[in-house]
Write a structure and sequence with these properties.
By secondary structure, the protein is an alpha/beta fold. It is built from 13 helices and eleven strands. Helix 8 crosses helix 13 and helix 11 runs antiparallel to helix 12.
């Protein structure tokens, strides 16, 4: 059950992709998701080329199932260098974030038989990456953690499904079987899940950071540009509240820049004060779990949901 075109495209058992978690070094997480039948993803962001090579090889030692590497376009040289590494290491699937890397990167990946799946926030972006040769697309709503657009998942996914001919994967605000089934109902062929996989034993982030997710409510995230210059959904911290208060009070650009620099610095120095990228689904997450168990639980629960819906449809 739940075998879709995405399963055939990626060679996986269940249409569940672990979202790339920038800055998280966790071959254990990616391999656990892949071993459970989904698709684990390694994030290239924050890693040197050689560090990424090591992560790819370690993941391959932990699973013989498909996994992907995510490349966030941070400039032509950075992106091409990591695309070449993917080719050298025999990576078969590459996802991209913050917009597609475009040619010649996509051309290089496709030339070597690598499946390319960009993450997009709008129909316009989806149409563009389809024209550039993407094999599938992740339509990611504004509820997601990390870099986000302004359109929510519920209206975004069906509009992308109607606009493109390639498979569409839903992301943003999905953390359990209910979101999984809803995404399939919207026309998606699978889901990408990020925040729920952060709150796992295998994710590689600290206990402090995991605790921030477990303690967060649906109202505790905020979208801010102060971490990267682009809109990023994070769990609101005291420092971010300070920044927001200064901005509302009419602080100068210099003052705001000083506070933003401090927030970025604290992310590296002080976990208690630091913020963490997280989606609104954090309010649904109450305990840590093993990544593989999450995949299996989503599938099992989704079967029960579909059986219940079938009963309702039959009257």
């Amino acid at each position: 059950m739940f075998h879709t075109v995405l399963c055939d495209l990626l060679g996986i058992e269940y249409p569940i992709i672990q979202g790339a978690l920038g800055g998280v070094r966790a071959p254990e997480l990616a391999s656990a998701v892949s071993n459970a039948g989904g698709l684990g993803v390694l994030a290239a962001w924050g890693l040197s080329v050689e560090e990424l090579r090591e992560q790819i090889r370690l993941t391959r030692s932990l699973t013989d199932k498909p996994f992907a590497v995510n490349i966030m376009p941070l400039g032509p040289a950075y992106t091409m260098e990591r695309a070449r590494l993917a080719v050298e290491e025999g990576v078969r699937i590459v996802t991209t974030g913050r917009g597609d890397p475009r040619e010649p990167v996509v051309g290089l990946l496709k030339e070597h038989g690598i499946t390319v799946i960009p993450v997009v926030p709008t129909v316009r972006h989806a149409l563009r990456v389809e024209a550039e040769g993407a094999d599938a697309v992740v339509a990611s709503g504004g509820e997601a953690g990390g870099h986000v657009g302004q359109v929510a998942t519920l209206p975004l996914v069906p509009q992308v499904v109607d606009a493109v001919k390639i498979p569409v994967i839903a992301a943003g605000g999905i953390g359990d079987a209910r979101g999984f089934v809803a995404a399939l109902a919207l026309g998606a062929c699978g889901v990408q899940i990020g925040t729920r996989f952060l709150a796992t034993y295998e994710s590689g982030i600290s206990a402090v950071m995991k605790g921030k997710i477990l303690q967060a409510s649906e109202e505790d995230t905020v979208v801010t540009p102060i971490l990267t210059g682009k809109p990023v959904r994070v769990i609101r911290s005291g420092a971010i509240r300070e920044y927001d208060a200064l901005e509302k009070a009419g602080a100068t650009a210099e003052e705001l820049a000083r506070v933003a620099a401090g927030i970025r610095r604290d992310r590296q120095r002080d976990e208690e004060a630091a913020t963490i990228a997280s989606g609104q689904i954090a309010g649904l997450i109450k305990e840590l779990a093993h990544a593989g168990a999450i995949v299996r639980q989503i599938v099992a629960d989704a079967q029960q949901i579909c059986a219940r819906l079938d009963g309702l449809a039959r009257g």
